[in-house]
Design brief:
With 210 residues, this protein is an alpha+beta fold. The strands form two sheets. A three-stranded antiparallel β-sheet has the order 1-5-4, with no helix packed on it. Helices cover 38% and strands 10% of the residues. The longest helix has 20 residues, at 85-104.
Amino acid sequence: MNARLEHDSEHLQFRQVVRDFVRDKITPVHEDWEQASCLDRSLFTEAGKLGMLGFPVPEEYGGPDVDDFRYNAIVIDEVNRAGNAAAGIAFSLQNDVVLPYLTEMTTPEQKARWLPGVVSGETVLGIAMTEPGTGSDLTGTRMSMKVSSLVSCACMPIFSRLRPREKPGVPASTTSRVNPLCGSSEVRVATTNRSPFWPLEMNVLEPLTT
């Protein structure tokens, strides 16, 4: 049984674009990124120029408005085929993991503010979900959140990243601790940055260990 997705001529042309991009823009500097334990931002901006980011983003926000996951699969397939796992993870986070939160759970004002940069690569998306003793195994998390409406604030959660940790596997996919700069256990979210799917009274999220 052939488990590969069927592709038409447009998919094949796009595959060649991605393959050329990997050959010219990633493979020559991949080892440098591994040594630096960090991907260069040009990875995203150059990919954005070729239409490799934000496929489902509507045209009004600068996206191609393409609801076809085969394009996502082609990007990951070609990047990983060349052995560039860190870049593959980065593109998957940008296109597949984090982007749906912005396309499906934001207001039109938030979409206009964030999505154009995601498509161009000027905005790099990331996600952090962990707790002590869990690592990247999200099924092992035991924390929950309680909602407090006592404080209304206009600040973004700000974190500082500590020195990347040495690790085997995919060094260019950075692993490091993050510390809240405000020194508080509360995460405060500005009104303009809240999802309309959150309860209206949700102003402060306080960690609650169970």
